[in-house]
């Protein structure tokens, strides 16, 4: 007697985000905590700390740690929340995002991949968004030759970027212009946040003698905050503004069609629908 696979229909025809289990949430919390330390150590360490003496070693140390932790999170989420269909969608979206990134090559902040991360995180949830953002940045680095000690920081920052979209309110109720306005506002602010976080990854390794906006390990917190703000205004404001504007424009123009496509694909994939095997009736 042959067996036949049958799929139980979902209770409602509505796109459902990929849910995370307790271990996945714990791993995601751990990697985020280490990431906060990796990005923010210049503001967390007191002026008397000797951590500044090892500043040149920090990129390699945190790069190795973050790569391992991102791998742990991806494995944990795959074990508890991502089935074969979700993994297939992850691959398609990551490949699309990686292909979009080189279009502007970062020129004047023309980076169209950011709007796709916002919309994907919104539909598929924060856990899926974190993994998607990290995998997309890794794939795009392989595609463009951008592999270096900065890559784990980019992966983590992009994971946070997409995860934040999945944490926005009203995933099951808010639709139409209100949702687009919310996603556009988030994309605008998060684009600046991404640039600011990435500035934190590189700013501490400038020589304090080379510029009056460089990190000074002997200076108090308020002085270094002022230096960091001046550094961001002088080096990345134009790129961050361009990235934010491009994200808003693409979200408003292409957002409705992309959201419909993602929700339709998610409903048809029925990620959380259990599959059972039953013998056919004679």
Task: Give a verbal description of the structure.
With 282 residues, this protein is mostly helical. Helices cover 66% and strands 3% of the residues. It has helices spanning 22-44, 58-80, 84-100, 113-124, 126-144, 151-166, 176-202, 221-235, 237-269, and strands at residues 4-7, 275-278. It has a two-stranded antiparallel ribbon with strand order 1-2. The radius of gyration is 21 Å and the shape is globular. The protein starts with a strand and ends with a strand. The relative contact order is 0.17. Mean pLDDT is 77; it is low at 1-12.
What is the helical fraction, as a range of percent?
55-70%
Strand content: under 5%
Enumerate the spans where pLDDT stays under 50 for 5 or more consecutive residues: 1-12
- Residue-averaged pLDDT: 77
Tell me the radius of gyration: 21 Å
Biggest sheet strand order reads: 1-2
H/E order of the elements?
EHHHHHHHHHE
Number of strands: 2
Helix tally equals 9
How are the SSEs ordered, and which strands pair?
Blueprint: E1 4-7, H1 22-44, H2 58-80, H3 84-100, H4 113-124, H5 126-144, H6 151-166, H7 176-202, H8 221-235, H9 237-269, E2 275-278
Antiparallel strand pairs: 1-2
């Amino acid at each position: 007697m042959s067996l036949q696979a049958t799929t139980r229909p979902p209770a409602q025809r509505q796109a459902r985000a990929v849910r995370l289990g307790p271990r996945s949430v714990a791993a995601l919390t751990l990697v985020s905590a280490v990431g906060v330390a990796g990005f923010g150590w210049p503001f967390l360490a007191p002026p008397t700390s000797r951590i500044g003496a090892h500043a040149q070693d920090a990129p390699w140390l945190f790069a190795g740690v973050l790569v391992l932790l991102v791998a742990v999170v991806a494995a944990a989420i795959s074990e508890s929340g991502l089935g074969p269909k979700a993994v297939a969608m992850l691959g398609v979206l990551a490949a699309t995002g990686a292909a979009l990134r080189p279009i502007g090559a970062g020129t004047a902040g023309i980076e169209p991949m950011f709007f796709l991360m916002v919309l994907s995180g919104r539909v598929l949830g924060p856990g899926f968004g974190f993994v998607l953002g990290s995998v997309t940045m890794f794939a795009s680095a392989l595609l463009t030759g951008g592999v270096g000690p900065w890559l784990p920081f980019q992966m983590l920052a992009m994971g946070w970027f997409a995860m934040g979209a999945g944490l926005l309110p009203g995933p099951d109720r808010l639709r139409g212009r209100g949702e687009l306005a919310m996603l556009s506002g988030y994309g605008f602010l998060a684009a600046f946040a991404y640039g600011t976080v990435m500035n934190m990854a590189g700013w501490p390794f400038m020589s304090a003698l080379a510029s009056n906006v460089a990190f000074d390990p002997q200076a108090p917190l308020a002085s270094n905050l002022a230096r960091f703000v001046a550094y961001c205004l002088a080096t990345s404001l134009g790129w961050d503004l361009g990235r934010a504007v491009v994200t808003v424009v693409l979200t408003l123009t292409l957002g409705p069609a992309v959201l419909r496509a993602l929700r339709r694909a998610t409903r048809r994939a029925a990620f959380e629908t259990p599959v059972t095997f039953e013998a056919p009736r004679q």
